[in-house]
Amino acid sequence: MAPSGPGRVRRRCRRVLYWIPVVFISLLLGWSYYAYAVQLCVVSMENIGEQVVCLIAYHLLFAMFVWSYWKTIFTLPMNPSKEFHLSYAEKELLEREPRGEAHQEVLRRAAKDLPIYTRTMSGAIRYCDRCQLIKPDRCHHCSVCDKCILKMDHHCPWVNNCVGFSNYKFFLLFLAYSLLYCLFIAATDLQYFIKFWTNGLPDTQAKFHIMFLFFAAAMFSVSLSSLFGYHCWLVSKNKSTLEAFRSPVFRHGTDKNGFSLGFSKNMRQVFGDEKKYWLLPVFSSLGDGCSFPTCLVNQDPEQLSMPAGLNPASKNPENHQFPAKPLRESQSHLLTDSQSWTESSTNPGKDKAGMSNPALTMENET
């Protein structure tokens, strides 16, 4: 049924309002460019060498900041592939079955060949009624975007976009370059800020730009440093913001470190294998976002038997047992350095990395 006229108007108004934080950041960035490049460097700096060095370094940071911010905003979040959607017959069968064990049995049959290991808190298959699909691991439904987002981290109002598998690297670089941008401005503006309070600057409009520029850069540096540090910690542990608030539930139970493969492999999963791309906002993350290497710290009754000599309770990520069911080849090569698959038919490989592609939004598990 087509939405009513007032409903469409409300949705369009919300979409416009969602862009207000982005417009605010863009205007603030534009003013900071004028205040620093023109009023500080050109008008206030008397040393030519200082002017040249500051302008070159500033424009380099400015370009990387804008590039990563643009990619974070306009990279579309990736949605689950068709194999996770129910067929027409499965949807009809699901609608006929009441909520309960019969309902779950339909979902279990549909999910038996899918590379999923996480469950709801009650141990049920993670299914999205809104999108009518079985959720891949680490996938969540965003109430703002009204879509299921692969490896969803959070919905960010400052970029008016969901931060997930397709743009999480861009978001990290956006935080990093915005922090460096603010720190650089604060550091190079400090001496002129001091001159403002000691009446060492000429009485022009430049002095007020210099004062407010330092205050803005210093305040944003504090907030950005804490946010960037938090996300660096998340990457080192291979967690999303949602998973930090609510640990993923596997078939053997809750495991807050279920996706952690060790610091090096966790970094490579986000930034890719080629270090030359790590500092550039180009997509280089490993995998397809639908399946991830996972370590099991307890015996999973649905997996193959564990060899007698291994300790299932080990908390060392390098000693965890990995799932018996094969993962996507683009992810499974992360495991070949320290573990072999328990199924002899599994053939790990390596895919070519690279594809083109605000407030925390939690999902309701069903």
Layout of SSEs?
Blueprint: H1 5-18, H2 20-44, H3 48-74, H4 88-96, H5 101-111, E1 118-119, E2 127-128, E3 133-134, E4 140-142, E5 147-149, E6 154-156, E7 161-163, H6 168-197, H7 206-237, H8 241-245, E8 249-250, E9 253-254, H9 263-271, H10 329-332
Antiparallel strand pairs: 1-8, 2-3, 4-5, 6-7, 8-9
Helix pairs in contact: 2-3, 2-7, 3-6, 6-7
EC number: 2.3.1.225
Keywords: Acyltransferase, Membrane, Transferase, Transmembrane, Transmembrane helix
InterPro entries: Palmitoyltrfase_DHHC, PFA4/ZDH16/20/ERF2-like
Description:
Strand 6 (154-156) and strand 7 (161-163) form a beta hairpin. The chain has 366 residues and is mainly alpha-helical. The chain contains ten helices and nine strands. It has helices at 5-18, 20-44, 48-74, 88-96, 101-111, 168-197, 206-237, 241-245, 263-271, 329-332, and strands spanning 118-119, 127-128, 133-134, 140-142, 147-149, 154-156, 161-163, 249-250, 253-254. Helix 2 packs antiparallel against helix 3 (48-74), helix 3 (48-74) packs antiparallel against helix 6 and helix 6 (168-197) packs antiparallel against helix 7 (206-237). Among the domains are: 14-77 and 160-277; 82-135, no CATH class.
Entry summary:
It is found in: Membrane. The protein is mainly alpha-helical and 366 residues long.
What keyword list fits this structure?
disordered C terminus, 10 helices, 366 residues, elongated
**Helix content bin:** 40-55%
Average residue pLDDT? 82
Oligomer: single chain
- Summed up, the helix count is 10
